[in-house]
Amino acid sequence: MRASAAVWASALLLLAGCGAGGAAQGLSPAGEGTAPSETTAPADPQPAVTPPPSGPTAGAGSGVTGAPPAAQAETPGKDEPKPKPAYRMNKNYDFVPIDPGGNKKVVLLTFDDGPKEKAQLETILDSLDKHKAKAIFFVNGYRVKQNPELLKRIRERGQTIGNHSWDHIDLKKENEETIRKQIGDVQRIVQDTVGAAPRFFRPPFGSSNDFVKKLAKDEGMLFMTWSNGSEDWLASNQKPEGVVKRVLEQLHPGSNILMHELPWTAEALDDLLTKLEEKGYAFLDPDAIDTSYWPFEQTSHQ
């Protein structure tokens, strides 16, 4: 009996020693710490572009994109929660952080006069995705009527749709009835096509008056022109390097960058966004803009 007890005691001591050895070597007991956590972010299937160390970093709710992957959440889909407003537009159409300590080195990317052509649009959307950037696509109603599937594609890719009037005419020269129709009809067709009306308005040619501004506000939109024009429609800039050069010449914190759905602009976009990141700029998410803030004189919207 005493011999059996001794054998059992020896076996217990041996097992205890094995357990201690595993702990000392940092080994985990089976079933603990070996499987990925359910909260582990999935691998990003798109190529990530990481700005240099001097570039901006964005945390949750910062309202900017283009941060290093480790500091950035997955790109939200069209139905995911929107970021809290973190930026306002000033009377010069630049964007400034609401928090005085917020990141000032941001740019807003915008594209006018679409939706035009599928391959061209997809090139723009792919470049935006590659750089984890958001933009506003200011659309014309007659083009939406022609290409409703392209409007849906913009929405599906998580980008923002803005109102650029129905016919791309100079609204400043039109009567109030025509202006109402030019703006209101775009609100309705976009709402009917993608389920949400635009929250941003840009007049064709940047031409407007107090009535245009008031009507845009009454329709729930933030009125804007731009503060950095690519001039990609000019013959001298109808090449990728011309678009990049013109934007960089005017670059400043809060730039509201005007571009168009044009083939050379689509081709230039990847290089342009890379150069903006290298200069330490982040890309402003339109959903982080406070559209309720009115930067113009009170008489402009009474």
CATH topology: TIM Barrel
**Helix segment count?**
8
Strand content: 5-15%
Molecular shape: globular
Within CATH, the superfamily carries the name: Glycoside hydrolase/deacetylase
Helix-strand pattern, N to C? HEEEEHEHHEHEHEEHEHE
Q: Residue share in helices?
A: 25-40%
Description:
- With about 300 residues, the protein is of the alpha/beta class.
- It has one domain (about 85-300): TIM Barrel (Alpha-Beta Barrel), CATH 3.20.20.370.
- Helices cover about 35% and strands about 15% of the residues.
- The chain has eight helices and eleven strands.
- Strands 1, 4, 5, 6, 9, 10 and 11 form a seven-stranded mixed beta sheet that branches. A two-stranded antiparallel sheet has the order 2-3. A two-stranded parallel ribbon has the order 7-8.
- The model is unreliable at about 1-60 and about 65-75 (pLDDT under 50).
List the helices and strands and how they pair.
Layout: H1 2-24, E1 64-65, E2 87-89, E3 95-97, E4 106-114, H2 118-130, E5 135-139, H3 141-146, H4 148-156, E6 160-163, H5 176-194, E7 200-201, H6 210-218, E8 222-223, E9 228-229, H7 240-249, E10 255-260, H8 263-278, E11 282-284
Parallel strand pairs: 4-5, 4-10, 4-11, 5-6, 7-8, 9-10
Antiparallel strand pairs: 1-11, 2-3
